[in-house]
Design goal:
CATH topology of chain B: Alpha-Beta Plaits
Strand content of chain B: 15-25%
Number of helices of chain B: 3
CATH architecture of chain B: 2-Layer Sandwich
Shape of chain B: elongated
Strand order of the largest sheet of chain A: 2-1-3-4-5
Number of helices of chain A: 5
Structural class of chain B: alpha+beta
Distance between the termini of chain B: 74 Å
CATH architecture of chain A: 3-Layer(aba) Sandwich
Largest sheet of chain A: 5 strands, parallel
Oligomer: heterodimer
Order of helices and strands of chain A: HEHEEHEHEH
Radius of gyration of chain A: 16 Å
Chain lengths: 160, 112
């Protein structure tokens, strides 16, 4: 079997997964917790005609109360800390959290200082880390695929 | 009006078929950094220059270990620039998502 065949099979498996799990849909709320706006531009391009995540039933919504998943960008600055916690508490369970970008993963070049929190996982539990500065839109789609296994587990266990 | 419709039809569908078919990053894209274990001299030049501080060298009972965490890496390529033996290269791999931070760490070691 060549490498190309393997990639083809992997793509097919991913497609099955999308159909099976996104039979309904996943709603995403994007939270800017002190990002430089590069990640926001990539999130914007997710819904343009080229990447078009709406074809999988993924929607970007305007309120955390409508959302199943929070897509957090930025290193959680002191001013955005409370806003992030409020958003997390307003999201209905079972909920997922994706840390998008290097800053959200562990602080990135800002690190942990008096103004920068140094990563989303210091404040709220994170389900998937999407590294990249900023990650490509394809990488974000891949991150959502990775997190879906976790969603199945959460629904199975009826975790709060 | 006719011109616009003509242009739309000529353009066709531009949406990527990404998850079904693999999408390769363009030439020059900076993705996951990888070590080449045979070439590395453990001089720790990359540790000094890394702006995000995600490369570290640890020594335990005579064995040196050089580790890199993609979690926090900004893919600037500075480590590749300063490495004299050319033991670190930025690949075009971008699918790096993981559920745990530990899965994003890659390391090489050698007994000296």
């Amino acid at each position: 079997m060549t490498v190309e065949d393997e990639i083809e099979i992997m793509g097919q498996r991913m497609n099955d997964k999308i159909r099976k799990i996104f039979g309904r849909s996943l709603h995403i709320r994007e939270v800017d917790a002190g990002s430089c706006n590069a990640c926001e531009v990539e999130v914007n391009s997710l819904s343009n005609p080229i990447y078009d995540i709406e074809r999988f039933g993924l929607h970007i919504v305007a309120s955390p109360r409508h959302a199943d998943m929070l897509l957090v960008t930025g290193s959680v600055t002191r001013n955005m800390e409370l806003a992030l916690l409020k958003t997390y508490n307003a999201t209905p369970s079972p909920k997922l959290v994706a840390a998008m970008g290097s800053c959200a993963c562990n602080g990135g070049i800002f690190g942990e200082t008096y103004a920068s929190g140094g990563g989303v996982d210091k404040f709220i539990p994170v389900d998937v880390y999407i590294p990249g500065c900023p990650p490509r839109p394809q990488a974000v789609i891949f991150g959502i695929m990775v997190v879906l296994d976790k969603l199945e587990q959460k629904i199975g266990k009826k975790e709060v | 009006m006719f011109e616009i419709i003509k242009k739309t039809l000529q353009t066709g569908c531009q949406t990527t078929k990404y998850p079904q078919t693999p999408d390769f990053a363009p030439q020059g894209f900076r993705g996951k950094p990888e070590f080449i274990a045979e070439k590395c001299t453990y001089c720790a030049d990359c540790v000094k220059v890394c702006p995000a501080g995600v490369i570290w060298l640890s020594e335990k009972s005579g064995e040196k270990t050089l580790s890199l965490s993609c979690c926090g890496c900004i893919f600037c390529g500075r480590c590749e620039e300063v490495c004299k033996p050319g033991a670190i290269k930025l690949t075009q791999e971008y699918e790096l998502s993981a559920k745990k931070k530990e899965d994003l760490i890659s390391s090489i070691g050698r007994k000296l």
